[in-house]
Protein: Caspase-2
Amino acid sequence: MLECGMSKRDKRTLQKCSTVLCKQMVVDEMLIQSLQAEDILTESMAESVMAEQTSQKRSWRLLLLLPKRGPKAFSSFCSALRDTEQQHLYDLLTQCPQTDMSEAHGEVRIRLQPLHGLILFNSFCICFQSLPLPTPEVIPAKRPRTLESMEVSLDTDSPITTPVYPCSQEFYLSHCQQSYKMTSSPRGLALVISNVEFDPCAPDLDLRKGGEVDDEVLRKVFTELDYMVTVQRNLTAQDMRRCIESFTRRPEHRAMDSCVVCLLSHGVEGAVYGTDGKLLQLDWVFGSFDNAHCPLLQNKPKMFFIQACRGEDMDCGVEQIDGPTRTCSPSCEQVDAGREGQSDVSLRQRGDMGRPRIKLPQRSDMICGFASLKGQNICTAAMRNTKRGSWFVQDLNTVLRLKAKDTHLADMLVQVNGRIKEREGHAPGTAHHRCKEMSEFTSSLCKDLFFFPKHETHQQYVPHSD
Structure:
């Protein structure tokens, strides 16, 4: 007879480990989609799990569903945990000592203390010369936390590496008309500047442990989104300026449909630090890509992602009055996009039929994601995992990989905000314990910005021979 539910043994294992799973398991899109791929969860079940507002509620909802999803549900769940880099939970489930039943043969093998005798089970008579008594369940103790482990143990998740999901032909055809043109291959140039090590003469700027993880994560995800990515590490403020100026002048921008700039460093409100302790103003960065200074990118989307401090205050969080015991328009400082009516309209040459030249605002078609709110400090161990990188880059990477196929960038950054909101630092005995972070973004985009990942077009960039 075909079994329609999980075996009793596996149900007991889930029940015994449910408390640990609810506290430590990360139920994200990758885990859910892994279970969907094995036909363990239906689409409606997946939606019901992800609709829960906190990580613990999502875990509990999933654990309620699994026992009803057939004999393969337990092994598929364990595999999904392993594939999403939650090895400690995989080990917990697969190594959980308990009764081992072989239902297919109608036998039960139990461990008892030495005893001579005879046991009857399900009409089977099984004789033992030596029967062990049941042994208690033993869950391995957590490793002791050192200062280093407190710094890196902020969340159980790590940057996902699942391939960027492709855009379907149907989705492209139904959305390409009302969105930015995104058909060039590559889609554009991407520049990542990552400052991890700082000059000893700048004593207040510590080593950004985990910063090298961030730039590698960004390099990989934007490469998969079909960008030509350049990574520059450990630049002084002046070198950052030269690097950006050179990037804006690259002739390849003419044939491409967008560009990406990522700045990862220490910072203050409105500026980021070079390795020499000097500041590079973000307003200068944005101005370098405006319609006057970078004409090759006029009317093309320009994306910026800033992983840096924006102030001196740490967000300690606020208890939610009517919410669970623990919880796992934004402030915009963007300058006006331009000034109108300051000069007469210049006319086209006679070949242009004498029509007035279209004017553009000084600054438009930009979107910038900030890792923290204005005035919020994120450059602490609690906000940047030394092994997995920063929360902001982790969540940006996850959302881009899972959602870029059918979601425009502004909506994806809203989802990043939602994921950041649920995070909470874990560093008992330090000021960073239970600290919070909140990201935000500003936008002067004028259309929806879809990446249309892996959608093949005929427009191919051919590099110049010079």
